[in-house]
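User: Can you write out an input/output pair for a complex, sequences first and structure second?

Assistant: Here is one pair. Inputs:
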Amino acid sequence: MALEALDQPKSPAASPAAGSGCASGSCGSSADKLAHLPEHIRAKVHNHPCFSEEAHHHYARMHVAVAPACNIQCHYCNRKYDCSNESRPGVVSELLTPEQAVAKTLAVAAEIPQMTVLGIAGPGDPLANPERTLATFRALSEKAPDIKLCVSTNGLALPALVDEICEHNIDHVTITINCVDPEIGAKIYPWIFWNNRRIKGVKAAKILIEQQQQGLQMLCDRGVLVKVNSVLIPGVNDAHLPEVSRVVKAKGAFLHNVMPLIAEPEHGTFYGLMGQRGPSHDELQTLQDACAGDMAMMRHCRQCRADAVGMLGEDRGAEFSNEKVAAMDIDYAAAMARRAEVHAAIEANRSAQQQQRPDQPSETFVPITALLDGRKQRQPGSTTAAAPAARFAVASTGGGVINQHFGHAREFLVYEAASVDQDVDVRFLGTRKVDLYCAGGDTCGEAEDALADTIRTLAGVTGVLCSKIGIEPWDRLEAAGLVPNGEHAMEPIEDAVAALYRELLAAGRLTAPPAATALSA
Amino acid sequence: MAYRIIDSCVNCWACEPLCPSDAIRPADPPQVTHFSIDARACTECEGDHAAAQCASICPVEGAILDAAGEAVNPPGSLTGIPPERLAQAMTEIRAR
Ligand code: SF4
Ligand code: SF4
């Protein structure tokens, strides 16, 4: 269990605050915000590849899609596609059998030692597929004890499975909890499948909420890290989310992550088709600030690439296709020894970095929070946006910097920038895959080329930041009213987004918000 | 008598482990593109459950037909999306 040791902070100085070198005003608060949690939970969070700002640059996690079924319906989800709690609507991932998932995980872990966390998040609800999910966990706990496991769930089947989940090498669990009031729940969940029956309405929501809360409590009692996700649905649960936050934190959830509703007719969801809008920048910001507890931690959690295969600065997904993995002969015992060496080297490097003067640039450190320090000290409520918010799509393979060629990007990270008082506030909204999704089925999209698909995917975005971009795509983006930009290669994303926002603002190009602003992420 | 799965099935696997009669067969692409029910094995869940299990968890309206050929979950019954609204949106999207 070499990794166990890696996850203990080496010294008090090993906290993310010390390593990231940002202003004490914002970082000091991260410890305080966790003060209500037991020491062992705080220690886990502080050095965690998913939640620690500093550890995040050194480790990665990957997801395997082994769990297709779901036991509830959410109004923002269309089961033609992957679960919307975990990915953007409209994404379809290839389903793996537990055996394929284990083989792929071992292959990636042997090749990319930085991959230390394996997650199961879908494409349905992992716990609605207990055999497939648990078979994957069982095999990995046995074959690769140095890989930590995490799982996301809607919570319905959680209480019944907590003990079995905890038998494995489980590191953290994410529960999507959108409400604690069944009347509100009935507006979000049309039905659940429970005790061999389909149950609808307030009764269904009541059962779901009870199971979620009980499962949360059971996990916290057993010392498992629990993160809670909520989807912010204006007019439905916006006023209710602070209450959700209070309840889940009192039970011991260490992080409450508020995500914007993404609803468009193309997704074929109830909300998309019925014209339910997503939250505005201000609505999202207000609730995130009220609920998150620790913004920096949440930002990192949400920026997770969920795909360790891309961590090394190039997309290596193709190296790990099912066929290629099946042909590999992985000696995991040998790989584990190599991994332990790499991890020890990373830890040595991290301690060395933590002793460097904060203003000294280091190879892997990216000061993402640098921009946010001023913002955090603002009085809540005193924020008046002087200029319209604008969205920016960023091509990045990870590490918090702009480092990907436009043409290589298979997904874009979408950020929103807004001018607040003298400052520019930049926040991460979500990712957009460059997949064409369409509720129209077989007829639409066929004749269009890939670039047109990409441009359509970027609807509502003002600027596109990438390391490089070809002349033809440049012209096509401009013709579509987008601003391409390759001037910020290798710069921290949030700095670059703020810079481009300022530039466009100064040039008077941000006078009217794009029409889709309120609708999409 | 037996239930039937038609091609609007999205291959989500939810029904398969629930069937008390082991009657549900997964898709086998490229020949078989969606789940199906072995008519000889399906018992309509009689004697096991009050409601047909496959049709009680299937998220796709219209994907499962009863022995009379009627959709067990007709349009609008699961998502709450009125069928007219869906049709109108599809037309709009196609026209783009
Ligand atoms: S009706 Fe019951 S027995 Fe028939 S396929 Fe569905 S679940 Fe199986
Ligand atoms: S539950 Fe419905 S959509 Fe899912 S596999 Fe079964 S028939 Fe197909």
